[in-house]
């Protein structure tokens, strides 16, 4: 299963990057962190992107796969004089995978992700879910292949997600993959030889039973409007709180029925970044769900680094999608 060079690269790269992110989290996220100190996630972001950039360059040279990577990070800041300590930390963690790596090589590998999107490109969020990562909670490594504006392959590495069907913390973690037209599957992140298990969304059809997967982080959505949306739909079920694209994994596995990214009142013109939605969206769709923007339009990944033609995101198990769109319209979202 998933024997193509693209799938093999994506699975191996995400597994490796997720293990590295977990290492950074274990060593750097402590009770001694000051409020607002995001240095662990900074180090983790850079280190994970360096590893994926390195592996993509190798896979592209060896197998001729697409070598264009649109990543969240750039090494520009790491090359500054006052960033020497951070670069040392990033290099230290990258050397756990590439022992001979130099700081210059690490920066070059990070900048593999500085490419501009074309007809075909990979997109990477090296650590999706900053607050979850810093709490020692849920986060994800998200990698996807986009071709002609449509996601064709997506992989999610969720180091703290024991099983995708539940938001519960766990040691083993989960790895999810979806390929367009071939379904979505998961296996234990820590067991590369484990069986692949099919993913399927929940069959809930009653809006009252909708379990909404809601972000703990408040910066990118309008939580008050989500309350209004739940009321408009008649939702009675308890929500599931968690950050990152790990939510997408749980929805795809039937552990919830709906998630929404509404526009914050202070950022009405915000448009989603491609790396925040690509991998998670195809996992949900290939598990039988549906993903659109708030107006019901498919997500368009052909517009550069953002979903410039889309407003927000709504993802459901499919059966509840029209009810969700109608409720969104009723509250003026």
Automatic annotation (TrEMBL):
EC number in record: 3.1.3.7
Catalytic activity entry: 3'-phosphoadenylyl sulfate + H2O = adenosine 5'-phosphosulfate + phosphate; adenosine 3',5'-bisphosphate + H2O = AMP + phosphate; adenosine 2',5'-bisphosphate + H2O = AMP + phosphate
Protein's name according to its UniProt entry: 3'(2'),5'-bisphosphate nucleotidase
Gene from which the chain derives: suhB_2
Keyword Magnesium belongs to the record: yes
Annotated source species: Botrimarina colliarenosi
PROSITE patterns hit by this protein: IMP_1 (PS00629), IMP_2 (PS00630)
Example GO BP: sulfate assimilation
Residues binding Mg(2+): 72, 125, 127-128, 276
Keyword list, A-Z: Hydrolase, Magnesium, Metal-binding
Metal-binding listed as a keyword: yes
GO molecular function, one term: 3'(2'),5'-bisphosphate nucleotidase activity
Names of required cofactors: Mg(2+)
Family per similarity comment: Belongs to the inositol monophosphatase superfamily.
């Amino acid at each position: 299963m998933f024997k193509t060079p693209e799938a093999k690269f994506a699975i191996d790269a995400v597994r490796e990057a997720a293990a590295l992110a977990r290492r950074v989290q274990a060593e750097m996220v402590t009770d001694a962190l000051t409020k607002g100190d995001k240095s662990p996630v900074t180090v983790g972001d850079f280190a994970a992107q360096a590893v994926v950039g390195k592996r993509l360059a190798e896979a592209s040279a060896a197998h001729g796969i697409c070598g264009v990577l649109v990543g969240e990070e750039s090494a520009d800041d790491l090359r500054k004089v006052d960033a020497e300590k951070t670069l040392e930390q990033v290099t230290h963690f990258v050397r756990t995978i590439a022992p001979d790596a130099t700081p210059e090589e690490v920066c070059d590998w990070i900048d593999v992700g500085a490419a501009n999107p074309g007809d075909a490109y990979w997109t990477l969020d090296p650590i999706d879910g900053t607050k979850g990562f810093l709490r020692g909670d849920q986060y994800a490594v998200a990698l996807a292949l986009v071709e002609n504006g449509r996601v064709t392959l997506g992989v999610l590495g969720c180091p703290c997600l024991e099983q995708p069907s539940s938001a519960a913390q766990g040691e083993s973690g989960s790895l999810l993959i979806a390929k367009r037209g071939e379904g979505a599957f998961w296996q234990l992140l820590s067991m590369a030889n484990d069986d692949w298990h099919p993913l399927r969304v929940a069959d809930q059809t009653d809006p009252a039973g909708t379990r909404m997967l809601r972000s703990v982080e408040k910066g990118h959505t309008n939580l008050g409007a989500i309350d209004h949306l739940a009321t408009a739909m008649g939702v009675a079920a308890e929500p599931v709180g968690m950050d990152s694209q790990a939510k997408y994994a749980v929805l795809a596995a039937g552990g919830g029925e709906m998630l929404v990214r509404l526009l914050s009142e202070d950022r009405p013109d915000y448009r989603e970044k491609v790396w925040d939605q690509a991998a998670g969206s195809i996992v949900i769709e290939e598990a039988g769900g549906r993903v659109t923007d708030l107006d019901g339009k498919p997500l368009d990944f052909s517009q550069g680094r953002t979903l410039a033609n889309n407003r927000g995101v709504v993802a459901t198990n499919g059966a509840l999608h029209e009810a969700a769109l109608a409720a969104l319209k009723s509250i003026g979202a």
